């Protein structure tokens, strides 16, 4: 079938303009374990921008977009969990067979990197081609949903609960579950505890909203942008700090040296050293934000050892299955997770504007609406 997709001709490098243009392309029907989804909307995430700016790998020409939500239009012969007409969001891809998938940690699927960034199915094929026949990398996160239609694996779908606007659902697939999962799946703050969140973009603000659902009594958001800090307070932060040279000292003063948890959720600023230094005894730092592939982290050895500090990586909100995404969507529907305050909608044709506004920090969570 013919669809419209936002094709990236090549990764543009850190500072140049984009080469993303809407194009009519051919999409094959679903294979036996796949589903064709008519995309209603799709978020713009830091990982899309990382690929555009050449920081993270993705083959071109190709189609980005990995926070798609829409309506099931057609299912493969072995699909049993969804049917045409179902409202779904497309979560992260995983193989379902490896040791980590079978152990309940599909976020850490041993083929996850290939499934997310390879651009093709694991067998090297793609369902998407240009009108002239040129194959497109049409399997970004096994969905490539900056398009009017996408082919996804059945197992990566989560049904959108009745009562939740479909256009709110896409971001749960990546950025929002990343921030919320770090808090709810991994750190699990104790009642009366303190948590500091570095970076108040869509991931950090999702962590703030999640912390607000726990017994943590001190929730501190740190960012350079005052408007984002104001939003963090609205979403449940008890304190906010404008990031600067004194941030670690300010955190120690605020928590009397007993910060229990920290989350590094910046978009490549790599503040892990500060997030660890600010912790108190037995504090835990979760590394959540993306970074350059060559980035490393330097912390003070005795500080970590003598204080029993822990540093953990948390990919995409931890190892849990799409069921977790459904839980978050139910919380939003019930008025307990106000994601709508982060979102600004853009017409699909304005994809480059949405990317620019995300780069500049003007929009926390751009969501593209596909004209159907
Ligand atoms: Zn796996
Ligand atoms: Zn993402």
From TrEMBL:
* Domain called Enoyl reductase (ER): residue spans: 17-368
Keywords recorded for this protein, A-Z? Metal-binding, Oxidoreductase, Zinc
TM segment ranges: none
EC number(s) given by UniProt: 1.1.1.90
Query: What general EC class does the enzyme of this chain belong to?
Result: oxidoreductase
| Keyword Zinc applies | yes
Q: Name one Pfam family in it.
A: ADH_zinc_N
Q: Which InterPro entries match?
A: ADH-like_C, ADH-like_N, ADH_Zn_CS, ER, GroES-like_sf, NAD(P)-bd_dom_sf
Requisite cofactors: Zn(2+)
- From the Swiss-Prot or TrEMBL record, what is one GO molecular function term? aryl-alcohol dehydrogenase (NAD+) activity
UniProt family annotation? Belongs to the zinc-containing alcohol dehydrogenase family.
Annotated protein name in UniProt: Aryl-alcohol dehydrogenase
The record lists the organism as Longimicrobium terrae
């Amino acid at each position: 079938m013919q669809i419209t997709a936002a094709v990236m001709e090549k990764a543009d490098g850190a500072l140049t303009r984009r080469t993303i243009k809407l194009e009519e392309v051919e999409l094959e029907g679903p294979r036996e374990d796949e589903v064709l989804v008519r995309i209603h909307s799709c978020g713009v995430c830091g990982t899309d921008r990382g690929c555009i700016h050449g920081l993270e790998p993705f083959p071109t020409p190709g189609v980005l977009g990995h926070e798609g939500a829409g309506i099931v239009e057609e299912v493969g012969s072995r699909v049993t969990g969804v049917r045409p007409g179902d409202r779904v969001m497309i979560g992260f891809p995983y193989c379902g067979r490896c040791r980590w998938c079978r152990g309940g940690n599909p976020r850490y699927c041993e083929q996850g990197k290939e499934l997310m960034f390879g651009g093709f199915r694991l067998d090297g094929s793609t369902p998407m081609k240009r009108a002239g026949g040129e194959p497109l990398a049409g399997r970004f996160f096994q969905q490539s949903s900056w398009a009017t239609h996408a082919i996804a694996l059945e197992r990566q779908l989560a049904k959108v609960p009745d009562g939740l606007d479909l256009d709110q659902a896409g971001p749960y697939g990546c950025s929002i579950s990343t921030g919320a999962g770090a808090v709810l799946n991994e750190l699990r703050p104790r009642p009366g505890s303190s948590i500091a969140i570095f970076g108040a973009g869509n991931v950090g603000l999702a962590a703030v909203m999640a912390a607000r659902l726990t017994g943590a009594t001190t929730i501190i958001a740190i960012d350079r942008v005052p408007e984002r800090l104001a939003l963090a307070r609205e979403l449940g932060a008890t304190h906010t700090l404008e990031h600067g040279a004194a941030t670690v000292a300010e955190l120690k003063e605020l928590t009397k040296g007993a910060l229990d948890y920290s989350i590094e959720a910046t978009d490549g600023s790599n503040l892990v050293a500060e997030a660890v230094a600010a912790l108190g005894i037995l504090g835990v730092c979760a590394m959540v934000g993306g970074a350059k592939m060559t980035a490393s982290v330097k912390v003070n050895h005795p500080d970590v050892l003598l204080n029993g500090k822990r540093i953990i990586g948390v990919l995409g909100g931890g190892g849990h299955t799409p069921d977790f995404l459904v839980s978050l969507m139910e919380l939003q529907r019930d008025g307990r997770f106000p994601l709508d305050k982060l979102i600004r909608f853009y017409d699909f044709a304005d994809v480059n504007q949405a990317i620019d506004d995300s780069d500049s920090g003007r929009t926390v969570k751009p969501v593209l609406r596909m004209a159907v």
